[in-house]
Each structure stands twice: as C-alpha cells, then as structure tokens.
Amino acid sequence: MSVTLIIILFTVATSVAAFPPEIPTIEAIRNTNILPRFSFNPFFIKRFNQFERFLTHGFIHINWWHLIFNMLTFYFFAPQIENLYKDYFGKLQGTLIFLLFYFSALVAASIFDFFKYNKVSAYNAVGASGAVSAVIFTYILFYPQSKLYMFFIPLPIPAWIFGLLFLIYSAYMAKQNVDNIGHSSHFWGSIWGIIFPFLFINYKIIWNTFINQLFYY
After folding, report:
1. Which one, of 82, 105, 73, 66, lies nearest residue 4 by Cα?
2. What angle do the packed helices 159-176 and 129-142 form, to 10 degrees?
3. Cα–Cα distance between 197 and 201 in angstroms, integer?
4. Nearest to residue 170, comparing CAs of 152, 189, 153, 155?
5. Which residues are within 8 A (CB) of 170 and not within 5 positions of it... i.e. 6 or more apart?
C-alpha cells in the first residue's frame, strides 16, 4: 500500500472521529473533544507548548465536503510526487523523504498564521489544504505543462499558469480576510512545495526538468 493511500485513510478516520456532532448536546460535545484539542490554535501552541498542533490539524476536517475535496485533490497529485522521490532515492529513502515533505508542509503552511494569531485564543484552523497545496506545487515544478483546471473555469490551463494565478489569488484573499478559508496556508504551503525539492535534489536537475517540460514538452 502506498504512503499516499495510508495518509488518506488515516486522515479520513481521524476526521470522521472529529466531526462536530449534528445535534450539539452537552453530552455529544463532551464525547467529541478531538476537534478543539488537535486543531491549529497558535495561542495554545505558544502558551502551553502544544507544538503537536502544527501536525494534528492536518488530519482533522470540519465536514465531509472539506474532507473529500482535500483528499481527492491529494489523491490526484500525491502518487506522482511519492513515485518521483522513490525514483530518485529508492523505495525506502524516497518514502521517508515523501513523508518528511508532507509533515513539514503542514508546519510550513502554518508558520505565518502562528505568528499572526498567537495572541488570539479564539483562532482555530483545521484541514490538510496547506500540505495539499505543497504537493500540487511540487507537481507543477516537475510537470509545468500538464493541464489543470482552476476553480470554475471549464477549460484546462498549463500547470505553471495555474500555479501563478493560484498564488496571486491566495495572496490577495489572505489580505482581504473575508472568509473562513486558510488562504495564507495555501500560499505558504505552495511556496514550500517549490522549496522542498531543492533540499534533496540537485538544483540543476530540477531546473533542467522544469525548462525541458516548459519549452520542449
């Protein structure tokens, strides 16, 4: 079984266990304390040293739509990146690097919000979208001319254009702060997806792969 599938199955199991009760009785809330305990809360991380929240929030989702969207997107892109690291480093080392990539992406995508909200006790965030964004952008780095769909645009566009538009949109929406979506997490997760491969793969290989894909595809 691939690491991608294991991450998906584990995330589905923990997310379902953490779903808020449909009928919010006192007893139901007491029996469902996973969500508040393991969500990303910068205030609790700083005050009570609950650093595990940097990771645990990525395995919790607020509802089925949130969970399905993130895991389906992850399923479409993660196998290629997992196999990419296995091809470069072998099965065992490639698997470990892929795991390090995913877990570090959860942290990297949350760092900005940690410093922004560590004095706000009411701030909470859940979901794997920051790490999923990292996976997508590593995919874009190695396959810039593949065709992707953006939001409700019905026509496929080259991956590198998708990436550029997505970064602009995420940065803009993060500044607007008008919804409950973690746009800054998407932005910084995406940036980490570009940075991380350079930590393990020679930059010349990455650059040549990107250029060859971009101009000679």
Report:
1. 82
2. 150
3. 6
4. 189
5. 183, 184, 186, 187, 190
Q: Which CATH fold would you assign to the domain 3-216?
A: Rhomboid-like fold (1.20.1540)
The Cα 87–Cα 210 span in angstroms is: 17
Give the range among 21-30, 45-54, 88-97, 187-196 with minimum mean pLDDT: 21-30
Q: In this predicted model, what pLDDT tens digit does every residue of 115-165 receive, in sequence order? A: 999 999 989 999 999 999 999 999 999 999 998 876 656 678 899 999 999
- What is the C-alpha separation between 191 and 105, in angstroms, rounded? 9
H or E stretch covering 203: helix 203-216
Segments of 11-160 assigned E as strands: 147-148, 157-158
The enclosing H or E element of 102 equals: helix 91-108
Whole-angstrom Cα distance, residue 17 to residue 138? 30
Say if residues 168 and 114 touch (Cβ distance below 8 Å): no
In terms of C-beta density within 10 A (0-12 exposed, 13-18 middle, 19 or more buried), how is residue 216 classed? exposed
- Would the pTM count as exceeding 0.70? yes
Q: Please state, in angstroms and as integers, the Cα–Cα distance from residue 136 to each residue in 77, 102, 129, 167, following that order.
A: 6, 11, 10, 12
Amino acid making up residue 15? S
Residue 44 has pLDDT above 60, yes or no: yes
Residue in the block written with tokens 């990107």 = 210
